[in-house]
Amino acid sequence: MTASGVTSTFQVRRQTHRAWFFLFTAFIIFVLTCGGAGGAGYWYRGHATVKRTAQAEVVQGALAYVLPAYQVNWSALPSRATAPSRDPAAGAGGAEIHEGDKIRTLNGTHVYLTLWDGSTVEVFERTELTVTELRSTQYINRASAVTLQLLHGLVRVALAPGDYNRSRFQVEAGATTVLMKEGEGQSGGGSFLVEASPGSDENSTGAVRASVRRGVGAVRVAGQAGELRLSANEQTIVPPGGSPGPPTPARRDLLANGTFVPSPDGGKEPYPSWQVISSPGQTEGTFGQLISVSDQVDGNPVSALEIYRSLNSVDPANTGLRQVLDVSVTDLASLLISADIEVMEQNVPGGGQAGTEFPMIVRINYYDASGTLQNHIWGFYTVPDPSGTKPVNGAQVDANKWFSWSADLRDLHTISPLPVRLDSIEVYASGHGYRARITNLAIVGAE
User: What is the CA 314 to chain-centroid distance, rounded?
Assistant: First the structure.
């Protein structure tokens, strides 16, 4: 074979090999393209989301408003015509809420949001939030994503049973994010609560309190590594710009300085957070005295408030303190008020002619669901009325002996409407002459 023949044969084989190479490469590219398209389609099928809606219903009050996405004017949410109810399934109707909508509630107003999967969000009074995300997977029932941005106020989330590793339901308040991690199996979904105080301006958020009622939740702060896990009946408080505090029992202490410790700097207010509400006698014109004393209750040293006016007094005068509370309590399952009290002496027997003059009185002022200001008093005395008359709101106690007292404000429904917001509390004596002491005063709400 000539040299030219060998060269020609080599070129034919080379072209053949090149053709097979291109065909094989094209086949590989085709397979990868098909595989990639199939994988992308499978991923899209599993992850593509569709916007969902929620139903908003005003179940208490009438001061609820919605600002639809991309609009500038707030409009009122329709109010339930029937009696207020805590049951989100009671009653029908309401307004449809979409992704991007804002909701605002004012005094005495309570709104339920019901999501497509049965999850609910309770929006309490004086709350403003934005529904920033409201979605679920489009083609398969696989996952959902819900995000609420809480500017200030209080919301309680109750999730339908589900897999929280795939679904995400979170509430953002400032730099803090609260979300569910684990539920309670098939018996029910998890539940958590987020409360945000107003910030330094109208568009900022202050301290955030997160509490878990059922299941296990997580608290995250932007810019900080890790997360704090909360089990059922635990809470944490996140100060502005700070880290979550350690988990503590889920309770709300609504009163400050229940031992009446005087101001350490001798400032204008002798008892921090308390204001004097004393009035002088109508004839003598003399005031009673508010005295900080050291004492012992059950062998434990305490600081107590003594309320005193001379037994030689013959005209009525009130002596005491008031603390402004201004706190919503509609989210609380129980609301307990308690104190240690000692009544020492009095010169007006029983509760006086009006049945409201006692040497020690605890009075709670509150708003009911209609927005009406109500009050209730508990009076304590040692000297009974000679006529045998027993004051309606009074209790006779042993003189010069400490005793522990408590009452559940949720039981007030038997005599008056339930409180939805506590306005203030007063501790005072009324009558002519008296001496009594009080300490360890507390108002505790359980969620």
Answer: 47
Strand 127-137 and strand 176-182: the pairing is unpaired
Q: Which of 76, 122, 35, 131 is nearest to 332 (CA)?
A: 122
Pairing of strands 360-367, 64-67: unpaired
Predicted confidence (pLDDT) at residue 91 exceeds the cutoff of 60: no
- H-only helix segments in 259-378: none
Cα-Cα-Cα-Cα torsion 348, 354, 358, 361, nearest 10 degrees, comes to -170
CA 173 – CA 168 distance, rounded (Å): 16
pLDDT (mean) for 107-129: 92
pLDDT band at 42 (very low <50, low <70, confident <90, very high): very low
Diameter over CA atoms, the chain: 145
- The residue to which tokens 């994010």 are assigned: 177
Burial 68-98 (b: 16+ CB within 10 A, else e): beeeeeeeebebbeeebeeebeebeebbebe
Reported in sequence order, the residue ranges of 125-175 that DSSP labels E, i.e. its strands, are 127-137, 144-158, 168-173
Determine the Cα–Cα distance for residues 165 and 182; give it in Å rounded to an integer.
Answer: 8
The candidate with the shortest Cα–Cα distance to 436, out of 261, 289, 283, 255, is 289
What the block records as the tokens of 207 is 């301290």
267: confidence class by pLDDT, cuts 50, 70, 90? low
pTM: 0.74
